[in-house]
Amino acid sequence: MASLTCFLNSGRRAVVGALRRRIHSTPSAPAQVTVRDALNQAMDEELERDETVFLLGEEVALYDGAYKVSRGLWKKYGDKRIIDTPITEMGFAGIAVGAAMAGLRPICEFMTFNFSMQAIDQVINSAAKTYYMSAGLQPVPVVFRGPNGSSAGVAAQHSQCFAAWYGHCPGLKVISPWSSEDAKGLLKAAIRDDNPVVFLENELMYGVAFEMSEEAQSKDFTLPIGKAKIERQGGHITLVSHSRHVSLCLDAATVLAKEGIECEVINLRTIRPLDVETVEASVMKTSHLVTVEGGWPQFGVGAEICAGIMEGPAFNYLDAPAVRVTGADIPMPYAKILEDNSIPQIKDIIFTVKKTLNV
Hints:
Largest sheet: 7 strands, mixed
Radius of gyration: 23 Å
Distance between the termini: 82 Å
Structural class: alpha/beta
CATH superfamily of the largest domain: Thiamin diphosphate (ThDP)-binding fold, Pyr/PP domains
Number of domains: 2
Helix content: 25-40%
Number of helices: 13
CATH topology of the largest domain: Rossmann fold
Shape: globular
């Protein structure tokens, strides 16, 4: 009887051991993570990894951030690492730039990038130009981050896209993420970069959840700055976008696929440096190009992409003119029906694709 019990126990241990080995060897399933939580993870991991990193801005500490992106960080890292500031963008942006020059790695949050206009002298003249003007002796590793572009019902002074504004300025790196993976991997890369980085989030994307791979959930995960991603393969036309409008392009591509039109959708991820090579390769394959953005048409991101295609080898592959879908050339209205007609919608993308393909 004792030998039988011993045999059963050894068998039970073998089964349990096998199950444990199987559990530990099986890759974990992708997790659903919101853009807000991905940004929070990125800052948390970098604050933990590097004691020179700190966060400052309006309501980022005690209130957990206006959009709760910095939730829990103040309780974990305290007043010296998570700093609430007065409503003085030029002041705290200047503090961030000075701290970066002194060897720290500040993350400077603007409650919205519309308010960064108060601090643009610090961003451009103090941060962007210093490395060049010091002959490469003085790096300025600061990240300016916060929501950018149109939100919902906040009218003209809170609904501008600054991608083209900051993308125009040498000395800056400008990032415009779409997914949770973009947000985490690129923010971590931005914090580690020795250049000033403008990190343009989108308020309407904060609560959107995306699948994040096991790799993306790692503390070592970063994405290369300056490299676009093909989110959907297609052979008939190239759609190029950034931030929230990548979602609209993917939705439009799904509708068009039912009609036999296969769109290749490119998520730029980075505005400066711009990954023209990925766009060129796609245009050489599809022979058609449509750019989509929420900003104004004149001197915009789409205009720069179209100019790059015109001046490069992909021009000879175009079977139709490159076309831009943009926001309306007006300050953002407050009324919802006017607001909806002032920014690109899925129907606008579908209409433009069909017009470009002459179908």
